[in-house]
1,3-propanediol dehydrogenase (Desulforamulus aeronauticus DSM 10349), 380 residues
Amino acid sequence: MNVFKFVSPEIIFGPGTLSECGLSASQLGARRIFVVTDKGVQASGWLQQALENLSDNGLEYVVWKDVSPNPKDYEIYTGTHKYIANGCDSLLAIGGGSPIDAAKAVALLVSNGGELSDYEEIDSIRRPLPPMIAITSTAGSGSEVSQFSIILNAPEKRKMTLVSKSLIPYISIHDPELLATLDTKVMIYSGVHVLTHAIEAYVSRVATPLSDLNALNAIKLVADTLRLVKNGSRSKEVHGCLAMANLHAGLAFSNAILGAVHAMTHQISGWLDIPAGVVDAVLLPHVVEFNLPANQLKYARVAEAMGEKVTSVDDGAKKVIGAFKNLFAELELPDKLSQLGINSKLYPILAQNIIRDVCLVTNPRKIQMNNITEILRRAY
């Protein structure tokens, strides 16, 4: 058996676990916490509950809620200044991927200095980060358990992918009750992102038996649950399944990394400032068509995990793309990039940004600039 590593934060999962944040922070030695969130989480009421819990545990806090979807580099520099000016010693992020990624980036800069672009090489962080707790209020990003932070380089309109074990939060809290305030459309977009995380982690060049176990569990859970959400089901069980799928997928891709769908989605969603899951739905069938020759066995297993009746590897490989397309059609998601408002004249710029994304390193099939351009053309 091959030797492999698997990284993870301490995980607290279950209904009502939002109330664990104060005790968890106290046990990490926090005294003055930098709370990172956004206005949507504030409006939902979850932020206030978290702050009350911090106060009940005798902790001081400073709130920064000026994080936008697809957080920008200049926002991170503002947050870094606020953290330092207020003498904070730790971080708590509550929200989806945007607040959590932003909190990670602030933690990086307050401890290591420099510019965010200095850290685009994998594992280029040298000094330890302050303690951080992440509370996810969506089921989509996986950032709360991962070694990723995605930040937009605003002048270049290019997303930077920061990858380091140092970016993994100390503690990750998953309270399915927080999903109750999401609308159906957001939940579907988030769920498609979970599915894409899991699939790309499963077929990654550096996948391991443990990452595979998490990835397949995520695929099975989310494919079935998304159909229930689309049909109006919003029960505690549904929220719990989506939260668990998100956790499994996050652990999978944090350890196996990702692939070409994410390299492309990072740049297109950053350019258009739209949810990543919408772009994933358009790109996934086209990228899998390109990657399929590299690992037909695993793609056949993906088809089976999504509910297809598979009689052989060849049969499963033939059915996997149709499984994606059928699911996305049921969810009424777009299937062309042109429907998202992207101008095909931007493809040369986007391709230049895509080829720099570290997620391409673990794509199951080597991909070059001409392949990227052709996939974009087919998806248009």
